[in-house]
User: Fold GNAT superfamily N-acetyltransferase from Streptosporangium sandarakinum.
Amino acid sequence: MVSPVGGDGTFAVPGTSGASAAGNPAGAPGVPGEARGVPGAGIREAGPDDAAALGELAAAALTLDAAEAPDLVASLSAPPPERRWTALVTGDLTGVVFASVSGRDPSAGHIDLLAVHPRARGAGRGRALVAAAEEWLRGQGAAEARFAGNPPCYAWPGIDVRYTPAAALAERMGYERYDVAWNMTAGLAADADLSTDADAARLAESGVELREARTAGPDDRDALLAFVREHWNDNWAWEAEHAGGCHYAVRGSEIIGFAAWGARPAWFGPMGTAPAARGLGVGRVLLRRCLAEQRAAGQESAQIGWVGPLGFYSRAAGARAERVFWLYRRTLR
Assistant:
């Protein structure tokens, strides 16, 4: 069985904890060898030799996300170990689709990423890839397919409305729009005010200590993840564990808030403050410290993904609502 590229440059095995859940090889039912007459589009599983080509393909196709596209491919290839997932490519490596099954609802399947090289568009490759992904999902027991993010390891909440051809393809294939999500963008220019010294001093006077997960000991990191699971969910805990950076606040012996970035490449989130500590200004400080790290890492802006409180991010970091995503689904019959 071949397997897609992992986040460290190695190759992760699609499936569930070592049990094979790979898609059908070209020529098997649901993965047609010539994808219903599309020249060069015989669909197969991604293999080890496809790694570099998939990154280049994603960068060429995903024009709104070109800089981070190779990292997105690597990230989707290194999900939580229990996830059932696959990556299918056209024979000429001009198209790729990632698909996975929801860990929370095994009847829900996800189209995680679809990319077709600009020079190969208009010949039916996108439709053929989606059809092959749907057939794989049926084989996994999914009753519904969604163009929607599958937390905690996802590329986008849904289809960015500016990727209009993708939205049009989904609608032609019978998908119905069922929800909308949006991101905010925080500017990270050198003159953007991300200072935290005054707020940190004020919090220290009230007994709140600010810490970084990367310098914490194993017991403290375990306590942080337990805090996130207790107040939110396992998905957020996975993101905090796999983040590029994570800051948290402690009062006495209790963790009261956290913020993370980079689990989804280049994006900020998740973050949260315990109910008893809200109103202290902990979230503002943790947010700004993460954004400052993203700026130091060379980012000119940061996407705040799947936003809820618009007002908070606008006040705390001058963020503006920008990217809008449509979420689609259809029944698999």
About this structure: The longest strand covers residues 176-187. Confidence is low (pLDDT under 50) at residues 1-13, 15-34. The chain has two domains: 15-180+326-331, 189-299.
